[in-house]
Design goal:
This protein is of the alpha/beta class and about 260 residues long. It folds into two domains: about 10-190 and about 230-250, Rossmann fold, CATH 3.40.50; about 190-225. The chain contains eight helices and seven strands, in the order E-H-E-H-E-H-E-H-E-H-E-H-H-H-E. A seven-stranded parallel β-sheet has the order 3-2-1-4-5-6-7, sandwiched between helices. Helix 4 runs parallel beside helix 5 (about 155-175). The protein is globular. The two termini are about 30 Å apart. The structure holds NADP nicotinamide-adenine-dinucleotide phosphate. NADP nicotinamide-adenine-dinucleotide phosphate binds near residues 18, 145, 188 and 196.
């Protein structure tokens, strides 16, 4: 299948490691011009070099951007636009909110999660839509969580913000379908990255058990009996963002080895 991603300008935010990095690597392998961003310049530099080496594609660049910061988001879009004159694909990603239940969170936690995991998608999307309208084509994929389908214990902030992104996705898909801008959301179940290590440590502490024990219990609950790998997740994102996807829009999909029981 030709994904029609060669020489397309792709922006993946929150991509110095984990899922964002795996997604950026797959785009680089397809011959896209890839921009990655995150908060840490040193890890971005390292990741750019790794992606170039693994993909053999030298069109990989970084821009430092904290997705909680409106001005930095604006600058990120301007820098990509200035260098490429177009933005074909936007993958909205950032770090996950802290683990915990309702009474663990104060006003500041709620505000941070809102800025990082919902408002960031609004702000970034608003910056790239004018490019996509001008091009009469665009693809946006929002990275969320399996909490778009089924709430997760001790993740109140994710359970609240991620469904908001799904609602936004549905509305954007309808509003911009006429501009040939397709918008989808993909939620990971349990994919092996630093984020799942952090969550497992937090949940083990909460339950008073060893992290290893908790991982075994969590793995047993996944019908495929293993965590997913970042590249298994990335392939779905890249397909939805590609020219090969011409009709799937407004959807919330999970990549979870059948973990989620909700329809
Ligand atoms: N892995 C899973 O199974 C899983 C499951 C459910 C949901 N998710 C969600 O999927 C997303 C990606 O997960 P992951 O596993 O790849 O996480 P990860 O390994 O912790 O990586 C997060 C990435 O986002 C960047 N980042 C964090 N906060 C940021 C901010 N404010 N602005 C810009 N970049 C930021 C980090 O780089 P810097 O530190 O350099 O900024 C890093 O590159 C997260 O939102 C996570 O909650 C993951």
């Amino acid at each position: 299948m030709d994904l029609h991603l060669k020489e397309k300008t792709v922006l993946v935010t929150g991509a110095s490691k984990g899922l964002g990095k795996a997604i950026a690597l797959e785009f680089a392998r397809e011959g896209s011009h890839v921009f990655i961003s995150s908060r840490t310049e040193a890890s971005l530099q390292e990741t750019v070099e790794e992606i170039k080496k693994e993909s053999g594609n030298n069109h990989v660049q970084y821009v430092v951007c904290d997705m909680k910061d409106k001005a930095q988001i604006k600058q990120l879009a301007e820098q990509v636009g200035k260098q490429s004159n177009r933005i074909d694909v936007l993958v909205n990603n950032a770090g996950g909110p802290p683990a915990g239940g309702f009474m663990d969170m104060d006003e500041e936690d709620w505000y941070h999660a809102f800025e990082q995991n919902l408002l960031s998608v609004v702000r970034m999307t608003k910056e790239v839509i004018p490019y996509m309208k001008e091009q009469a084509e665009g693809r946006i994929v929002n990275i969320t969580s399996s909490s778009i389908k089924q709430s997760i214990d001790q993740l109140i902030l994710s359970n609240t913000m991620r469904p908001g992104v799904l609602g936004l996705t549905k509305s954007l898909a309808q509003e911009f379908a006429a501009n040939n801008i397709l918008v989808n959301t993909v939620g990971p179940g349990m994919i092996a990255t630093d984020r799942t290590i952090e969550l497992n440590q937090a949940w083990a502490k909460e339950k008073g058990v060893e992290t290893e024990e908790l991982i075994q219990e969590a793995t047993a609950k996944i019908p495929m009996k293993r965590y997913g790998q970042p590249d298994e997740f990335a392939k779905m994102v890249v397909f939805l963002a590609s020219g090969a996807n011409t009709y799937i829009t407004g959807q919330g999909l999970v990549v979870d080895g059948a973990l989620v029981k909700a329809l």
